[in-house]
UniProtKB/TrEMBL annotation:
InterPro entries: His-Me_finger_sf (IPR044925), HNH_nuc (IPR003615), NUMOD4 (IPR010902), WH-like_DNA-bd_sf (IPR036388)
Annotated protein name in UniProt: HNH nuclease domain-containing protein
Segment forming the signal sequence: none
Domain HNH nuclease: 72-111
Organism: Limosilactobacillus mucosae LM1
Domain NUMOD4: start-end pairs: 6-61
Source species taxonomy: Bacteria, Bacillati, Bacillota, Bacilli, Lactobacillales
One annotated GO molecular function: hydrolase activity, acting on ester bonds
Amino acid sequence: MDNSKEIWKDIQGYEGYYQVSNMGRVRSCDREIVFKDGRRRFYKGKLIRPVKTNSGYWQIRMKINEHVKHEYVHRLVAKTFIPNPDKLPEINHKDENRLNNRADNLEWIEHVANLNYGNRAKKFAISRGKKVGQFTKDGKLLHTYCSTREAGRRGYEQTSVSKCAIGKLKTYKGYVWKYI
């Protein structure tokens, strides 16, 4: 990583305690702590090692006094380096790599656009879903979806499609649904 263009800024709400860089790294700041009994101790700042969550994102733990907060690194980078004048709710990784938290790889985005970005929907269906077929009542295949989730994005209730496919419902919206 070329750190010559790395820019560090204070994290909002943690000024003087923690900073985040445009390269997606987080560090604590040098600081002196005064204890209740008057003793003073100097703490040297250091890089914070992130933890990979089950959902595949880097997360860090920040602590001021006894208050501990966990934050996703991509959210810290975006809030600090990427303007959000339209108050968009989610952050997208342009290259679809959840571990690449560089500011130039992140963008603010709407929830629906984030769900459908790039190959994400297709990858989700392949890795998690089963193909589901939409049939007429007399058995003619009308359409195949990669998953019940995809059928849900096309205007059908995902739970109802799923219930039909596993046999809890006979039909939904006049169609028979089966896992293929």
